């Protein structure tokens, strides 16, 4: 019965003057390029097609100096900074000037961009480098890096290279304004050549006679103080020493400086609170405690830098 039904269907199709296709048609061998047209730069790959001239119908890589070297042409084509349509006119004019073709029909499209890289690094989930093809914004770049990581700081640094390749200005974008407040003015457009860095948030380390020792992020810039650090560590334990110590590394100096503070006077509001800087170690000894040794400091710094979550329990 099934065989008879198939024969009947084929006979009906033939009676209508149609044919039964054996398979789907194959895709075109040279699909049209879908990359948006924007100025070409060094190392970009362009697709050139010249009618009735197979020698010039293929892909060509733009040289580092921004020129195209094409077969049959003695003169190099200046391509950098020009749109594909402008390059078409340059090639057509060169073919006529060298008397190779009378009325050349030239088509140029971009097969691959390599001249507009954007790098995203730092406290992001997946550091990435991509090409800024089309309308690319700062939020697009962060999305390609899969967003900010948990230890991202309050600012995003965007640096652009100068026209001569020199280091350009660094623009500071506040994370709160860009993401939380959705300020469109902060979502800047990227044109290629930008380096986006997301610094990790600074941390202070609190150890000693506290309820919860650890490494705590500084979420409000440089305004973290001794009192705030003690609050993050859930307060002091009994029999705390009247004095505490801040161990701080200064640029250009080896080791850490020891800064004694009058903890009891700060707690009694008889002395002003002391500000802390990123990477400071606040050591609060008990009444019989001694100063921290250099070996203990190195151990603490090593543990703090190796913890991905930023939380270090020190008992």
Description:
- With 315 residues, this protein is α+β, with helices and mostly antiparallel strands.
- The protein has three domains: 45-112, wza like domain (wza like fold), CATH 3.30.1950.10; 117-198, Outer membrane lipoprotein wza fold like (Roll); 203-306, Outer membrane lipoprotein wza fold like, CATH 3.10.560.
- Helix content is 21%, strand content 26%.
- It has helices spanning 2-15, 84-97, 138-144, 175-180, 226-232, 263-267, 294-306, and strands spanning 45-50, 58-61, 67-68, 77-78, 106-112, 117-122, 128-131, 136-137, 155-161, 167-174, 189-190, 194-198, 203-208, 214-217, 243-248, 257-262, 281-284.
- It has a five-stranded mixed β-sheet with strand order 7-6-12-9-10. Strands 14-13-17-15-16 form a five-stranded mixed β-sheet, with helices on both faces.
- It starts with a helix and ends in a 9-residue tail after the last helix.
- Residues 1-33 and 307-315 have low confidence and may be disordered.
Compact summary:
Helices cover 21% and strands 26% of the residues. The protein has 315 residues and is α+β, with helices and mostly antiparallel strands.
Write the layout of secondary structure elements.
Blueprint: H1 2-15, E1 45-50, E2 58-61, E3 67-68, E4 77-78, H2 84-97, E5 106-112, E6 117-122, E7 128-131, E8 136-137, H3 138-144, E9 155-161, E10 167-174, H4 175-180, E11 189-190, E12 194-198, E13 203-208, E14 214-217, H5 226-232, E15 243-248, E16 257-262, H6 263-267, E17 281-284, H7 294-306
Give me some keywords for this one:
26% strand, wza like fold, 315 residues, 7 helices, 5-stranded mixed β-sheet, 3 domains, Outer membrane lipoprotein wza fold like, disordered N terminus, alpha+beta
